[in-house]
Amino acid sequence: MTTSSSGGRASASATARATAGASTTAGATRRPYRRDIDGLRGLAIALVVVFHVFVGRVSSGVDVFLLVGGIFFFGPQIRNALNPTGQTLIQSVVRLLRRLYPALLVVVTVTLAAGFAVYARARWAQTAEDAAASLTYRQNLHLADQGQDYAAVGRDVSLYQHIWSMLAQLQIYLGSLLVIVVLAWLLKRVPLRFPGLSRHWLLVIATAASFVYAVHLHGTDQGWNYYSPLSRFWEIGLGGLLGIWLVHKETPTRLAWARWPAGVVGVALIIGTGFFLDGADQLPGPWTLVPLAGATLVVLAGNPVADGRGAEGVSALLDTAPFQTLDRISYSLYLWHWPLLALATFQFSDVLGNRSTGVQGITATLGTKKGLAIGAAVILISLVLAWATEKYIETPLRQTRKPARAWLPSRTAVKDAVSHRAGSSSRW
To answer: pTM of this prediction?
Structure first.
């Protein structure tokens, strides 16, 4: 969201939220929802936007999105697949696309029209090609095929460069859904000696293999490494394992004191990554472990304590209104901020942007005073548009109730999909 992609009350983003609504296995205990993890996603989108606008470098925001997306994706989907009354593969995909596609379509359509109004005719074909690649969920592959490295904002940058991350995330989800359904079918028919291990061993292997692949590509083809869903899978897979094994694990009372420092160190690692590493050149290679370790510390800092005490420190902060609001609009905010930034940079500057190791945000092309003013305006307008998109497009079209299990959409499901009912709090 990847940003770097997207990175709803999202990250990894609206996508993970759209998939987190699967039913639990019959008889399973409903786990308490972790609002602090939503707040972590709010922090991630804030980093993505601020770094894009004012720093011009890749933060770790998208990588945090991917980890959080895995937390909310794999556990629920595995339980859903093993549940005889759970949603079918088609229903899961429909829910996912229903949650994500309308906002994407609106943003791309509006910004494409704006691009035609601002750009010279010679640039229309490329802009339209990028828009088409985004709407067909292949922008990350399109950018990789063109050999385009992820660049800082400038007059010549694509309006839809940022969409690569949410597309890579969606490609991972769709592929994983298929594998989960097939594996669940096998598990129901082939008795296994260690069922707990057998449900997750493939995720462990796939995560490790993806990490090895990312490390290899980092040294051979960093451009493809940055955009590829195969090299990005390990970040989501790691989040899935974290969600399955550790997110709801109780912290012993004697270790409760460590939640404060763990949360602070975790946030420092997440924020510091964008300042000390060039994410476009280093992620998702081995250095990605730094911000993901930070995100893991933040998540563990919010785990329940054996004596029943509530959240504190960073976890309590992430549960406050500002971070929860950013989380709620994170998907739309991710979609809107980059094309608005690219259009503003083009409109108000006649200087071509360039890659360097220093600050490359909007002030690099507009100057400090003008850049700060335009950059702040871009953020403000993005926030307003994201709020409106979430309220009037995302929420009304969100699935409001669990349909009966079916392999083809029923008349009731179709009617519910077009009725624009107020949505629930499903996540991306």
So the answer is: 0.87
